[in-house]
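Example record for the data management plan.
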Amino acid sequence: MSIFSTPVTDTETLELNLKRPYFISDLHLDVSRQKDFACFSRFIREHQDNFDELVILGDFFDYWVGDDAIDTAHDYVDVLRELSQNKKLFIMHGNRDFMLGGKFAQAIGATLLTDPSNAVICDKHYLLSHGDIWCTRDSDYQKVRARVRSFAWQWFVLRLPLAKRLDIARNARNKSQEKKVEKPVEVMDVVNDAILTHCSKDTVGIIHGHTHRPGQYPVSDTVSRWVIPDWRHGEDNDLTLGFITFENGEPCIEMATYDAKEIAK
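Corresponding structural encoding:
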């Protein structure tokens, strides 16, 4: 990593031309949970023939403290690197893994996207995002987001010992969960006016994650947004996962459920 390199400066701004994409977001994978990897690996094996591009729109990991921790995720790196031999991979920062950098993207054969990014799918223009950038009612969160996405903050934090960064990440995750309980859902949802400031005259749709409220929602008379389902662990050791694909030229939300205990055997 160069002395001037940080995750925020490693992103690429480009317009994607996608043929048969799968969109996933908010997997919140924990590298210490083997069943997480078992389910993700199963998902890739079962679905890889159905897409040409895999687009990960943030929060792939539950937290990420820097690419010098990449060895802790070697299983995921191996699966994604093998996938990238025949498929195009794109990944975007989320609010949990915004410290993913160019080293990780290069290791898995992916392009690290700027948030938001533009894409042409089935000859229509879409805007892709993790989604948290548009949660403008949550002013406290936006202040924190601006700080941790700055070059200066990331440059400084990446020079802290890895163990210290892991402690910071765990504490931040716990505090985030506590604050979510206190805030109304409407405060943490996206704001249409904020979305429209990033749309062009050709934009017909938005695809994003973050809000954990999957579905199709109107943004304006001509623009709709589709929210990718998050991946959730159930009480019976199952994992319910969702993704967005395209059918007949339109976004389609799909779901699947795996028995994590059975898969991990």
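Summary line stored alongside the record: The chain is about 30% helix and 25% strand.
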